[in-house]
């Protein structure tokens, strides 16, 4: 099946909060939470999507006509293309009860590995979510990134132990999840972490530590000071704070500040191969895509993930061919404007 067919099929398994839109641009769901929308006015997810459309490709076909490769090496592993499935939590509440987090992650992790990419998994109040995700990552040779919420120290240590036992290629914390209601009211206190607390996490592990939820140079420098190997430029899809800038609008300045020292990923409204190319041209090492993978799994499970990855790869190849790049490393800033 093609992506369009799978989207139609996914509507049968979704609640009425997600419309399985032909283009996931944040407009139809706007501020539906529960649901896949953004917080408050609901405009941040829309702004994320629109910002990539305001960046334009520079076509150049006067170049060597050599085969195009989208392969990239990140976290010591070679991937088919520099795209990862982003972490999604509480899928039954936000999308429909055809899946719970454990069953969703089980499909996602294996399907992404089989498709040549990697999945980030979510976290939640139920301990079984992280237990299941890390077990699935272990069963898939560590090809996955467990993403831990900024819980109180004792809980973080417990979840880090699970992640380490899974042999995951990297471990992430979505620090911007501090804005989620269930973390704001959590006892013992959870949420924001200082540099010292992040350093303690880095010292606990021997794989790259990824801080997800960086939206400024100041934040990136703090993550660097803490010893993080990687950051994800992200506003949590607009779900934790209204009126934030689009990730595309802050990516380049963050790259200029810390790009030589850290791996930089970006998410937020990235929907096709052209968007991926734009992110790479602005200096990102890779991208995360979240909501569309939910639709693919609700519509066709593993087949849906494969269809989306196949489509993204072909779109990226087409864009690289038309802009004069034959490898990911050849994508440069002057290829977009």
Automatic annotation (TrEMBL):
InterPro entries: Aldolase_TIM, Alpha-hydoxy_acid_DH_FMN, FMN-dep_DH, FMN_HAD
Record's catalysed reaction(s): (S)-lactate + O2 = pyruvate + H2O2
UniProt entry keywords in alphabetical sequence: Flavoprotein, FMN, Oxidoreductase
GO terms of molecular function: FMN binding; oxidoreductase activity
Residues annotated as the enzyme's active site: 236 (proton acceptor)
Entry similarity comment: Belongs to the FMN-dependent alpha-hydroxy acid dehydrogenase family.
PANTHER family: 2-HYDROXYACID OXIDASE 1 (PTHR10578:SF107), S -2-HYDROXY-ACID OXIDASE-RELATED (PTHR10578)
Protein name stated in the entry: L-lactate oxidase
